Amino acid sequence: MLRTRSVAAAAAAAAAGLLLLPSPAQAAGSVHVYKIYYDSPGSDTRSNTSLNGEYVQIRNTTSAAVSLKGWTVTDASNHKYTFGTFTLGKGKTVTIRTGRGTNTSATLYQGRGAYVWNNDRDTATLRTSSGRWVDNCSYNSTRVDYKMC
Length: 149
Fold this sequence. Notes:
Strands 8-7-2-1-11 form a five-stranded mixed sheet, with no helix packed on it. It has a four-stranded antiparallel sheet with strand order 5-4-9-10, with no helix packed on it. A two-stranded antiparallel sheet has the order 3-6. By secondary structure, it is an alpha+beta fold. The N and C termini lie far apart (about 55 Å). The protein contains three helices and eleven strands, in the order H-H-E-H-E-E-E-E-E-E-E-E-E-E.
């Protein structure tokens, strides 16, 4: 009987430990901020072309597609982009441009008439639909126009 309890206790402990391990998709990679192009080329004229010259990219390096519905990307001033119904395929990257345009599987548009990303320093933060922090990327430079995260 003692041996049965020990085996049962060991099995319960092992099962509890398994719950703490990452899922196979998490173990294979992550969904993260990949790049911020924060200083669009040319003069800041607020034209749609200029607004779309700044963007943030989100990359999925997991081995499975990930639904981003309700996920958010914010900057340090709390400008927020919320994903609608959108699935980011395994190994894919999506570009979120500031201005207007037609959404595709590779490019989404915020539809804004003003810039989001500061030209000198800012932070992009990615969160799930429940508000759980996933990733962030910061930059502090006017010497380059983008940051690889």
